[in-house]
Design a protein that fits this description.
The chain is α/β, with parallel strands linked by helices and 277 residues long. The chain is built from nine helices and eleven strands.
């Protein structure tokens, strides 16, 4: 049994990403002059409000500014991420919010989701293994789903948290199941992901539509989402193959990840996405 995604049935959602600035303890936080948590939260809430105003259907809160990333994050990051996620959830109303703990800490993401009221998590390597700039990352689907049960966030419960799992995630090279269709099948069937995410090679890069078709063929009946590279220009080619999309860079100033949301760019992306649905 899978957790239904927290969006209206039949909808094709567009989800933005709240790129948190460097959190306490990270190198960027030190270089920024160690800003207080109140300032970090204020920026996250402003980012979220700009996405909502543009018409996005949901948001993911992630510790984007914490590079270089740990594979699993320390306690101070979990605490700061949970606080930011909670404030975004409070401003979301009924709209769903998710959590991504970079680089691949599904345990932390689930804990933050349960503590904050978020409805889903993104896991970059859920099954298989990948060579990344953090070294070799191994999927921990067995531990992740057992923890979800332990936290009362499993399918069928009022606090269910969906797992959206990347397949051949960006900034990585798969070490097993190099065939994308097979990797998608493994994530959906053996890893029991509630949806799978396909991205390009790096942040802001779009995948070839053929990879989306391969994912759909490998995991029939499981939602296939886009994880990078959505722009007004790529919408016509990509959106018909998607069940949803996560987008961030194209909605920001200069089309650059980590910068503040540009209201005009965000609105243009929403308009192009809706036209392509």
């Amino acid at each position: 049994m899978r957790v239904p995604l927290p969006f209206p049935a039949g909808a094709k959602p567009l989800v933005g990403v709240v790129h948190l600035p460097p959190l306490p303890g990270s190198p960027g936080w030190v270089l920024d002059g160690r800003p207080p948590m109140d300032a970090i939260v204020e920026r996250a809430v402003a980012d979220a409000a700009a996405f909502w105003a543009a018409g996005f259907d949901g948001l993911v809160v992630e510790n984007y500014g914490d590079a270089p990333f740990f594979k699993q994050v320390p306690a101070e990051t979990v605490a700061a991420l949970a606080r930011c996620a909670r404030e975004v959830v409070l401003g979301a109303g009924a709209r769903p919010v998710g959590v991504n703990a970079l680089r691949n800490d599904a345990r932390a993401a689930l804990a933050c989701a349960v503590a904050s009221g978020a409805r889903f998590v993104r896991v970059n390597v859920h099954t298989g293994a990948a060579a990344t700039d953090q070294g070799v990352i191994e999927g921990e689907a067995a531990a992740t789903l057992r923890l979800r049960d332990h936290l009362g966030a499993s399918p069928g419960g009022p606090g269910a948290v969906a797992v959206l799992a990347d397949v051949h995630v960006k900034h990585a090279r798969p070490l097993v199941a190099e065939d994308l269709g097979r990797a998608a099948s493994d994530a959906a069937e053996r890893g029991r992901a509630d949806a799978i995410i396909i991205s390009g090679g790096a942040t802001g890069e779009a995948p070839d539509p053929a990879t989306l078709r391969a994912a759909r063929a490998g995991a029939p009946g499981v939602p296939v989402w886009l994880g990078s590279g959505l722009t007004p220009e790529t919408c016509p080619a990509l959106v018909p193959w998607l069940d949803g999309a996560i987008a961030a860079s194209a909605a920001r100033e200069g089309g650059r990840a980590g910068r503040p949301v540009d209201p005009a760019r965000a609105a243009a992306l929403v308009e192009a996405f809706r036209r392509a649905v």
